[in-house]
Structure formats: C-alpha cells, structure tokens
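Onboarding guide, step 5: your first structure request.
Type a short instruction followed by the sequence, for example:

Predict the 3D structure of this protein.
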Amino acid sequence: MRSSEPRRPRAALACACAAALLGGCSIISPWPAWEVVKGAGAVASLALEQADSQASNTVYHLHAPTPQLCIAFNPQAEVADLVPALQLSLRRHRVDSRVYTDLQQVPGCKVWLHYAAWIDWDTPPLTPAPRPFISAAALTLRTSEGQVLSSSHYVMADGMRTDKWATTREKIAPVVTALVTGAENVGFLKCLNVAQRAQEEFPHAPTNC
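The system replies with structure tokens like these:
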C-alpha cells in the first residue's frame, strides 16, 4: 500500500496558489506593474521606429553653383524653425543666405529660394498633448528673372517606419542638398558626379558638395 505523505506538499502548493488567486495576486510575475511597463515600452519602441527623411521629385537644371542667395519669407508656412533649418542646411553646402519679406526692395539678389510647408497635428508617443509636424514641403530656386534653376520636395514617410516626429532640420536637410547639388538621397559620391558635370560647363565654379 502506497503512502499518502508525498501528496501533502502538492496539496499545500495548490492551496497556496488558490489563496493567492483569491487575494488578487499574480503567480506569473511578482511585479505585475513591471509587466505593464515592459508592454508599454515595446509598443512605444515600435511606434518610435523612425525612417530617414528623403527628398523627392527633384528637378535640377545645370547651372553655376550658387555661393549666396536670398530666401523669400513665406508667412503662410507657420513653422517657427523652418527658416533657421533652411539656413543651417544651406551653410553646410557653403551657401550664404539672407531672408527678405519684401522682394521688390532687394534688387541685388540674383537667386531666390522660395519655400512652402504643409502642417498636420498629432500626438507623439508617450506625450499627452498634440503638436504640429511638417507633413510636406517644397523648395524652389529661381533667378531674379523667374527662371527655375532647381526644385525638390519633402513628403512624410508613411507606414510602420515613419519620419513624422523627425526634427524640421532632419526633414529639410536632404531637400536642400538635392536643391543645390542635384543629388537626391544618394550621398556624397553622386553629388560629386553631378558637380563634375556642372564644372564641365562652368569650369571655374566651386562645388556645393
């Protein structure tokens, strides 16, 4: 005849588990709140997966590189840091710029940068309040006579990988690069290739790469 002694620990464990369940405790993890935090972190990391911003629909007509230009201020593009982002990105390509509101009063500007931006609102992950973001932008270089030298656009990446919450400069910088070099999202070597083609026609002009 088998002894019933070995069954007592099992019975005691079952009772302890039942008591724990009745008391509202979890037998999966001793820190239920930590499981919630880990789950929220996983969701946030997925939501924050960010794509690199890119230029698109670039049109570039060969012309002498522009060492300086004037920016036509657009009051309808209500993004406080857009113009500073433009100027910083231009400076990276050794292009000096000044901003003007009255285009008729600046006869010395031979090249103008015109821009437009479209704004949407949404709530960033782990943030309680909505805030604006640039969903699209367009840049155009024109001579003072109105001839288009180049144009390029930014359109927000969509899907699981998005650049929605990238900074204004991160969104605008690739578009400025495409605008002044003709190289769209392909890096420095392609920029040099485009610059070499330009220098064949303008031998003494510096490169903006």
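Each response can be followed by summary notes, for example: Residues 1-48 have pLDDT under 50 and may be disordered.
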